[in-house]
């Protein structure tokens, strides 16, 4: 009985798993921001970290904004939110401190 094809498959599968693990140098984190404001108010969102800027986004009522980011050991990630008449109400949340 020839086991060479089976052993080649196991070897190739092992290499694939090791390369996928080696290529993922950091974790990908996920943040969801949902607009559940009353009175049909839009929400302006601006999220950034010390080395990544996700830009400004307008989230319509009952809409959501989803972002992915790479978390590094000493990196802070925060989001600014504006709402209300002329977007004068402002709040900042530090994403990775758990107090959202």
TrEMBL record:
GO cellular component, one term: extracellular region
Listed GO biological process terms: rejection of self pollen
Keyword Signal (UniProt): yes
Name of the protein this chain belongs to: S-protein homolog
Membrane-spanning intervals of the chain: none
Pfam families: Self-incomp_S1
Protein location: Secreted
Record's keyword terms, sorted: Secreted, Self-incompatibility, Signal
Similarity section: Belongs to the plant self-incompatibility (S1) protein family.
Signal peptide limits: 1-22
InterPro entries: Self-incomp_S1
Chief location category: secreted
């Amino acid at each position: 009985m020839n086991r060479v094809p089976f052993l080649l498959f196991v070897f190739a599968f092992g290499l694939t798993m090791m390369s996928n693990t080696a290529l993922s140098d950091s974790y990908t984190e996920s943040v969801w921001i949902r607009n559940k404001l009353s009175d049909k108010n839009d929400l302006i969102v601006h999220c950034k970290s010390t080395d990544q800027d996700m830009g400004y986004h307008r989230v319509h009522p009952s809409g959501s904004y989803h972002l992915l980011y790479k978390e590094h050991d000493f990196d802070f990630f925060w989001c600014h939110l504006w709402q209300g008449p002329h977007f004068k109400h402002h709040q900042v949340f530090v994403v990775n401190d758990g107090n959202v």
